Amino acid sequence: MKRVVSVSLGSSGRDHKVQVELLGEQFEIERLGMDGDFDRALAKLQELDGQVDAIGLGGIDVYVYAGNKKYAFKDGLKLMETVKKTPVVDGSGLKNTLERETVNYLLRETNYLNKDTRVLMVSAVDRFGMAQAFTTAGCDVTFGDLIFAAGIPYPIKTLEELEEMAGKLLPEMTKLPFHMLYPTGKKQESRDEEKAKKYAQYYRDADVIAGDFHFIKRYLPDNLNGQIIITNTTTAADVEFLRQSGASRLVTTTPVFEGRSFGTNVMEGVLVALLGKPWEEVTPEDYMDLIERLEFKPRIIDMAS
Amino acid sequence: MATHEEITGSLQAFGEGYQKNKKLKIMNKDWDRVILIKAADVDSQHTLILKNGELTVTEGTPAGDPDLVVTADSETLADLFYGDITPTEPYMNGTLVIKGSEDDIVRLDFISLMIWGE
C-alpha cells in the first residue's frame, strides 16, 4: 500500500484519513494538522521523511506565481527543505494544471461561467492558472490578493496589475512569517467579523467566488445571494456552512473521498507517488495524463437539493 | 550613526515618494494611523500621520498615543526611509522593532514596498 501524508499548518480539527484504490494501487491518504505550530510541523516532517511515499505541505504555500515569475515563501521552503528522502510537494504544480482545467470544464459542460460573469478570486497568486483561465474566458475578475492577504481594500482588476503588484511586493513579503499573510491554526476555525463586514460587498457583488477555502471562509459575510463557490479542502461541515450562508453551488477542484475534498498538496502527493519519478522531473503533461486516466473531474454540489 | 537631520531627510524622501504614488493614496483611504518613529541611539523622534490617504511627516512626538511605534538605530531608520534597505529583513532579525497590531505592521511594510519596491 502506498502512503501519502499531508502535514498542514492548519487546524487538527480537520484531520482525516481514507483508503482508496487508484489505478489498481491501494492508497492510504492522511491529513495531519499542526494547529499553526511551525516547530511541530518541522518535527513531524522529519519523522515522516523516508517512511511514506509522498508528503504534501498543507496550510502553507511554498511557491506562488504571477506571470512567468515564481516566488517562494521562506517559511514554506524551510519546511520543504527539512524533507530529504521522500518526495515533498505543496500542490502548486498540480494547481496550475487541475484548476485551470476546472474552469475549462465548467465552460464546456455547464452554463455557470460566461463572458462578463463576475468572479471574485480571494487570492490569485496561489492559483495563477485558474486566474488566467477566468481571464481568458472573458470573465469580469476581481483579484482579492491585497484585500484578503494584506487587508488593503484595493481590488486588482487585471492580470497585468496583479503581476506588477506581485513584482513589487512578493520578493519581500514572502520573507515574512506565513501566518502574517494567511490564516493558520485556530484562525482557520473562526471568522474575522470586522473584515467580513468590511469586505462583504466584494462577495455579494460576485456571481462566482473562487480560490483558497480558508480565505473564503474567514471573510464570508452572513448572507450570500446564490453565489457559486469554486474551491477545495472542504469537509461535510463546510458544505453545510456554505449552504446556510446562501451559496447556490459548490464546485470542488479535487476529488472527494469519503465526503472530503482534499487539498491540492495531498492530490499532488498521490500523483507523484503514482508516477514514481522525482518531483523535479514531473511535467504538467504527466499530471494531465494521470488526471485523465484517473477520470478526475470537478465535483458539483447543488445547494438547493 | 545617522543624525536627526538625516532621518528627517529620509522621512521627507519617503513622504515625497508617497505623494507621487496616486494608487497608494487610494489604497490607504481607509487607514488612518499615527506612527511614531524613534531612533534608539540618538535623540530623534518623528511622527507620520496618515489620514484619508494623505501622509504628513512632522518632527517630534504625536499629541496622543500613536497606533504604531517604529524603533531602530538611526542608521537603519535613515536607510529604511531612503529606500536603501527594505523593512522585512531588519524586522525579522530584530534590528527594527515595530509595536502595533500585526495587520498594521503588514500594512506599513506594504507602503514601504510600494514606494521603494522593484
UniProtKB/TrEMBL annotation, chain A:
Protein name according to UniProt: Quinate 5-dehydrogenase
Source organism of this protein record: Desulfoscipio geothermicus DSM 3669
TrEMBL record, chain B:
Domain of life, source organism: Bacteria
SUPFAM superfamilies per record: SCP-like
Ranges where the SCP2 domain occurs: 23-101
InterPro entries noted in UniProt: SCP2_sterol-bd_dom (IPR003033), SCP2_sterol-bd_dom_sf (IPR036527)
Pfam families per the UniProt record, alphabetical: SCP2
Protein name: SCP-2 sterol transfer family protein
Organism: Desulfoscipio geothermicus DSM 3669
